[in-house]
Amino acid sequence: MTQTQPQQHNPKTGLSKLSIWCINHSMVCVGLYICLVSLFFLAFPGVDLWSSGLFHFGDGGFKAENVAFLRDVRHLGPFLVRVIAIVCVAVLLIKLLVPGRQPLMPLRQPVFLLSTLILGPGVLVNLILKDNWGRPRPRNVEIFGGDLPYQPVWKISNYCDSNCSFVSGEGSAAMWLVAAITLLVPATWRRGALIFLIPLGLILSANRVAFGGHFLSDTLLSWGVTLLLILAIHHLLYRKTPPLVSDRQLDEWFTVKGRRLQRVLQRLAVRGRRALRGIGRVFAER
User: Fold this and answer.
1) pLDDT of residue 149
2) CA distance 119 to 230
3) Cβ atoms within 10 A of the Cβ of 233, count?
């Protein structure tokens, strides 16, 4: 009689299954991440103060913000965001102005990038959270030489009126650069994109903690809420069956609107030429 050997658990197999589950349930995983990070910092608020304290030097304050190179690095993120946004707008405008030509790229891509940028770092982070939660920045709290009390995550207060600490705008933009672009690049380029974008996102986010502009929790939660919104819009545009809007539908819409715009511009041009001829005749009769 042959004796069956007990099946051994392979940690790599378990990790692989967990990774596949997380990919297939990405929004659930991000939601759990937001909850766990929030609960952790509510239970251990000292971690926020400790992490910011690593960059604070008594009377010298947060010295990193006086380093010219780090200040330049801070501007790199907004610069890249502006460049990508301008390219996306240009692609849509070109299709609108030249409706008979094929678009420079599938139109869902610029629509996805612009909508996630506007709704994520723009509306959710800057207009809703930063302007209404009232959390003072690290440099403004008492322990770091300011005159305001430390406020825990998710607590609404009146210690800051607008552009407050919770959550990090730079962290949100960094996550947008990493997640939104990675979701769109071809699979063969994805690893290379991540190798470049993840360190860039970490540097841009950590920079603001080092400057005393945000707590660690501001950054970690900005990643979560931004990624959750990006995944939701990606689901609507790419994973939902049928998608909210397809490349063909966008192409047809911009073609129709572009031709209508052309007719309006042609009529305006005709009227403009007539007006110029009339003005010319008036001056000629004088």
Assistant:
1) 96
2) 9
3) 19
Euclidean distance between CA atoms 87 and 160, whole angstroms = 35
Q: Backbone phi, then psi, for 214, in 5-degree steps? A: -150, 150
Do residues 37 and 220 lie in contact, with contact meaning Cβ atoms separated by under 8 Å?
Answer: yes
User: Is the Cβ–Cβ distance between 69 and 225 less than 8 Å?
Assistant: no
pLDDT at residue number 1: 46
The lowest-confidence range among 7-21, 114-128, 250-264, 269-283 is: 7-21
Q: Is 11 helix (H, G, I), strand (E, B) or coil?
A: helix
Which runs of consecutive H residues, i.e. helices, occur in the chain? 11-24, 26-43, 46-53, 68-97, 108-117, 169-184, 187-210, 216-234, 247-285
How far is residue 243 from each of residues 247, 248, 249, measured CA to CA in Å?
10, 11, 10
CA distance 275 to 206: 60
**Mean pLDDT value across the chain:** 91
Supply 69's token pair.
Answer: 């190179």
172, 191 in Cβ contact below 8 A? no
Structure tokens at 45: 């608020």
pLDDT tens-digit readout, 229-275: 999 999 999 999 999 999 999 999 999 999 999 999 889 988 888 88
Inter-residue contact 34 to 198 (CB < 8 Å): no
Read off the pTM.
0.89
pLDDT at 9 exceeding the cut of 80: no
Rounded Cα–Cα distance for residues 198 and 218 (Å): 18
Q: Look up tokens 């959390």; give the residue.
A: 135
Percent of the chain with pLDDT over 70: 94
Residue 141 main-chain phi, psi, to 5 deg: -90, 160
Exposed / middle / buried, residue 41 (Cβ in 10 Å: 0-12, 13-18, 19+) = buried
Task: Compute how many other C-beta atoms are within 10 angstroms of the C-beta atom of residue 80.
Answer: 18
Block residue for tokens 């672009």:
181
